[in-house]
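Collaborator request, handled under Task 6.
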Amino acid sequence: MSTRRAGRRRGAADHSSGGHDGPDERWMASYLDMVTVLMCLFIVLFAMSSVDQQKFDALRDSLATGFGQEPSEDIDFSGLVLPPELRAEDVGHAANVDADLLAARAELDDLEDLRARLEGALDAKGLNGTAEFTIDDRGLTVGLIGAETFFATNSTDLSAKAVAVLDALGPVLQEVPNDISVEGHADRRDPAAPFPTNWELSSGRATQVLRHLVEVNRLRGDHVQAVGFGSTRPIADGEDDEALARNRRVDIVVLSDAEEEVRALIPELMTDDTHS
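C-alpha cells returned to the collaborator:
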C-alpha cells in the first residue's frame, strides 16, 4: 500500500514539473496574436478620422483575414502600419489635444452661460445695453463703456446708473467662484486736479467699482482685484467723442481658471461657432 502511494506521488510530481506528459500550452501563441491584433485595432479606431481611406480599407481587409472572415493562404498585416502622422509616439499627443479641446468647449459653455445670466439680470432691471460682453482667452469681460455714464467728469464717484448696474450684476457675480479683475481705463486726454495722471484716475475708478462689489454686493474680497491701466489700452482709434467715450471705461473681468493650454483654444472655438 505504502509503496503504491509513493509511486503515485512520484508520478504526479513528474507531471507537475513539466515532464513529457505535461499540459499543452500551444494555445498561448494564438491568444497573444489575438491580443496584438486587438491592440492595433483600437489604436486605429482612435485615430480613424485622420486615416487615408485607401489605407484604412487595406487595414480593414487585413483584420478581417486575421479574424478568419476572409480566408487567405497569405495573411498580409501591412495595413497595420500607420501613416507617419499617426505613429504611436503621436497618439498620446493627439489624446492630450482632444482632452484640451473638450475642456475648452466646457469652459466656453460656462462663460457663455454666465454672460446670458448677467445679460438677463440687466434686462430684468431695464438696464439692457449698459454693458458690453466679450469672451476671450482671459475669460468673460463686462465692459462698462462711457465714463460719464458711470462717473462724473474727472471723478471717481459712482453715478446713480453705475450703482444700479453694479447692483444688478452683483448677485450673479457673487455666485461665481472665479477670481475677478476690475480694470480701469482712461482716454488719452490729460486729467485735471486732483488726479496728476490717468493712472490715478483709472485706478481710482476701478477701486470704487471694486469697493461697491465687495462692500455692498458682498463679493469675496480675496477673489477681487483692482487695476488701473491709464490710457495704455485703448479699444477705439481716433480723437472724436465716440472713440474717447469707448476708451473711458471700467472692465469687470471674470478670469477663467482653466489651464493656459485650454484657454488658448477658446478664441478658435468661438470662431468655429461663428462660421458654423
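The cover message to the collaborator said: "The two ends are 89 Å apart (CA to CA). Residues 1-19 have pLDDT under 50 and may be disordered. Please let us know whether this matches your experimental observations."
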